[in-house]
Amino acid sequence: MTPRSFTTPITELFGIHHPLICGGMMWLSNADYVGAVVNAGGMGFITPRSFPTPQDFRNELRRCFEITGGMQFGVNLYVSARPEANEQLAQFLDISIEEGIGFVETAGYSPREFLPRIKDAGIKVIHKCTTLRHALSAEKAGVDAVTILGAEAGGHPGMQLIGTMVQGAQVPKAMRIPVVLAGGMGTGRQMVACLALGAGGMLLASRMIVASEVWAHDGYKHRIVEMDAGDTRIIMTNFGDNSRVIANETADQVLALEAEGVDDFEAYRELVAGEIQRQAYETGDWNRGTPSVGQGSSFADRIEPVEVIFDRIMADAGAARDVIEGTK
């Protein structure tokens, strides 16, 4: 592991070596990946909906503790607008508390309803937001930190699509709690820029798909390696739910439906369903479904272990700091 060279409110909050947070990735964030992130000095979050049953999720938590030698890691909890969906979230939270998880990454709608239960268990919470207004609301609700997503982020970067540099200049200045910047991240130079803007760290997601510990098919990873910053698409705008995904044949079909004004979700279901995205990871057929991919994938230049990716990022960060300080 690269020696510690940056201490920030985020490294202190999570007790980690580097100010590097790896956000939960649906289907991909399992014990192997999250454990490797923690062992390499960062913080990662297992996604419970990636597993067939609650017991499978519990087993994955136990396996991750084995991989980290007891070091803490996190769980990603997506807060839905649908109460019935949040019933399962409550079950995932109960399991996380029972298994002694120390950190939770919430995303989607406000976690306010679940915060008393989380905080009573002594768990620290970082909430993903897409605007300053949402970040301030999360702070008021009582979260310990926020991640602010810029327009470059994969998945759901919000409807306003505010760029990461703009978010970075606005949000940390307005907050009293630590902020992590996300969206298009993948280099140490960007990490130093995050800190210069007042954030406590940066979040990686698409950049990490090519990690050796991620179970996705090498054929899919090789496509990520080939991609540049223009190889993503924004879909589902018609439904008020922007989603940045890999540019592929399926995304083109979705965009064609949107251009025609089709507003019946059933016409889209077989194109965007999450289970089909999982098939893309399993088979390597990157044209299948609409897997979430952000512009940070353009920095994923080879398949290699998490620790090597982190070492390269931290070396780049050190070189950037030297330039700023005028020592090189």
What keyword list fits this structure?
TIM Barrel; 328 residues
What does this structure look like?
The chain is of the alpha/beta class. It has two domains: 9-215 and 299-325, TIM Barrel, CATH 3.20.20.70; 228-292, no CATH class. The chain has 13 helices and ten strands. The strands form two sheets. Strands 1-2-3-4-5-6-7-8 form an eight-stranded parallel beta barrel, surrounded by five helices. Strands 9-10 form a two-stranded antiparallel ribbon.
Question: Can you give me a brief rundown of this structure?
Answer:
The protein folds into two domains: 9-215 and 299-325, TIM Barrel, CATH 3.20.20.70; 228-292, no CATH class. It contains 13 helices and ten strands. It has helices at residues 9-14, 31-39, 54-68, 83-98, 115-120, 132-141, 164-174, 188-196, 218-226, 249-259, 266-272, 274-283, 306-325; strands at residues 20-22, 43-46, 74-79, 103-108, 124-129, 145-149, 179-182, 201-204, 232-235, 243-246.
CATH class of the largest domain: Alpha Beta
What is the number of independent domains? 2
What fraction strand?
A: 5-15%
Number of strands: 10
Q: Average pLDDT across residues?
A: 96
How helix-rich are the residues, as a percent range? 40-55%
Largest sheet: 8 strands, parallel, barrel
What is the spatial order of strands in the main beta sheet? 1-2-3-4-5-6-7-8
Give the helix/strand class.
Answer: alpha/beta
At CATH level 3, the topology of the largest domain is TIM Barrel
Oligomer: single chain
Q: What low-confidence regions span 5 or more consecutive residues with pLDDT below 50?
A: none
Strand/helix succession: HEHEHEHEHEHEHEHEHEEHHHH
